[in-house]
Amino acid sequence: MIRVLFVCLGNICRSPMAEAIFRDLVKREGLSEKIQVDSAGTGDWHVGSSPHRGTLEILNKYQIKADELFARKFTKEDLNKFDYIIGMDESNIGNIKKISEHAPHSNTIRLLDLTDQPKDVPDPYYTGDFQETYQLVSLGCQHLLEKIKAEMNLKK
Ligand code: 4NP
Fold first, then answer.
1. Which of 20, 30, 42, 97 has its CA 20 to 30 A from that of 103?
2. Cα(42)–Cα(155) distance, rounded to whole angstroms?
């Protein structure tokens, strides 16, 4: 089993969106038995909460299943449990490193560094633009799946 963890700050806007989009992509490719997906936040303000209404609305718009998404905090142990840890922005990557007490983290990647638009995923908690975030997260997730398929020699 290949394990993928998406990480943002609050785990209510971007990383649960990425979790749902990526799980949907994995399912469409018939790889659900091989790739497990989760998300977490480096902050603990929203632990136990469902995603932000804007995230739920955009997922619903694209008919992507968004059940059973509850915020949790990223922990040091996640570093060993997951094969790929995907931060949404540079500050997430910094926070992951801090929480992991600077353990080796070669599997930690900023999502859009996998695309031709290497930059932070804008946080719709502040921008209010869930559509823009959806487009960028979708693009990043497509690239991530291609990378994992290539690296892990995955076939259906
Ligand atoms: P997220 O957005 O990291 O994409 O889930 C945020 C959600 C909540 C807060 C910050 C960012 N907050 O400060 O409560």
1. 20
2. 33
